[in-house]
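Weekly modeling sync, notes
Attendees: S.R. (lead), two postdocs, one rotation student

Agenda item 3: backlog of single-chain predictions. S.R. asked that every request posted to the team notebook include the full sequence so nobody has to chase files. The rotation student volunteered to paste the first one in as an example of the format we agreed on. Action items at the bottom.

Example entry:
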Amino acid sequence: MLNSLTKPEQELLNLLRADARASIADIARQLGLARATVQERIRRLEQKKVIQGYTVRLDPSYSRSRVTAHTLLRVDAKKAEKLYDVLRKMPSVSGVYALSGEFDALAVLQADSTAELDEALDQLGRQDAVERTQTSIVLSVKFER
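Predicted structure, as returned to the notebook:
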């Protein structure tokens, strides 16, 4: 979908990624466009579901102060959607990715302590759809984008 965007739309998305709270006037000034044009482009991108929401980007030092784990999951396919609904509601789960190969999904968990992470992993492991897990704790982040 992103490849089919025009260059001005891509530039607009880049500015929004850098600061989604920037005013329409500031974005219009940076793009050299009228405010109404920028508003309309944002509305169209939202309507086309290219922009599906706005979020908070955390300071990397805050994220790195938390305990992060990557948990591979083997999932009973018949119960997968119910599991994903449960994971969506767990505050410690920051993302779930479908995988090919031996495991079906990767869950990324973040917690303020190893005890909190352990509790989240126990909750995840108790889910009926989870057949097997394998967890790795992130020791350090070499770089992020």
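Discussion: group reviewed the output briefly. Residues 15 and 30 are 9 Å apart (CA to CA).
Action items: rotation student to repeat for the remaining queue; S.R. to check formatting next week.
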